[in-house]
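Board notes (copied after class):
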Amino acid sequence: MKADRAPSPTDGPAPRLFGLARIDFSPDHRQPSALRLALATVVALAGSLAADAALVAIGVRVFPSTKGYVHFQFSDYAKLTVIGVLIACAGWPVVTRLSSAPRWLFFRLAILVTLVLWLPDLYILHQGQPGSAVAVLMTMHLAIALVTYNALVRIAPVRTAIDP
């Protein structure tokens, strides 16, 4: 028979979930510099918008029936791209503060967010939107995730801890 003991803060599902996600609130590194984060944000925005434009151009070339598709208008996808990239760029320093393995966690979060952002694409496909156009939209989401992740972790990496 187990001895009675007081509940511990390490009991329960939250600490196990934090452990699986490598959220430990005790990173041994310093935050990315503000200048590098700003530069990474600019690169992520420019790179993501360029990737979107290139994918739309390729999509229209490969699938001529998608020419004029409403979601392929720069004004339509650019505002959503900018919002998403800015949210991701704001999230990177948060992740670096919460985890001693920020790249590991941020990569998995990028995958999760991309999968979630595919849900509206699948919904509009289900509603009768052209499959070829939706495939281009899904590819755009993936490209934005790849560009943004790489810009942040490579241009604004965590810095080594200061020795005492």
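Comment from the instructor: The mean pLDDT is 88. The beta strands are 29-30, 159-160.
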